[in-house]
Amino acid sequence: MTSSIVAILGVTTILGILGMGVNAFRLLRSFKNGVLAKGWKYISIAAFFFIFGIVALDLSVSSWLPSDVFTGILGYTGAAFQAIGGLTFAFGCKFQYDAWNPKGMKKSLVKTSQESLAPA
Known about the structure:
Elements: H1 2-31, H2 37-60, H3 68-100, H4 102-117
Helix pairs in contact: 1-2, 2-3
């Protein structure tokens, strides 16, 4: 009974996380390299690292894998992927802050206005 509940929760978690990745990718496509796209690129990449990390950790605690060494490697790999995802997410948040920061907005507005005035 308990193992079936854990399996259902694991599958639900994996499907929810994959849905998060799909939404992150759709959001990334909607920006089309605008001012806010730089931060969202990193945040979307971070979502996929989180997905791989959580799936690896879910598999590492499952009882149907044959080897303890393999589950140990999956556990460490999942933790490493989640750490990389966390750092990438932090970089994405920093780039979002830079885009919304009034000083950063002035720099980007000056840059885009200069590009529009330059002859093609």
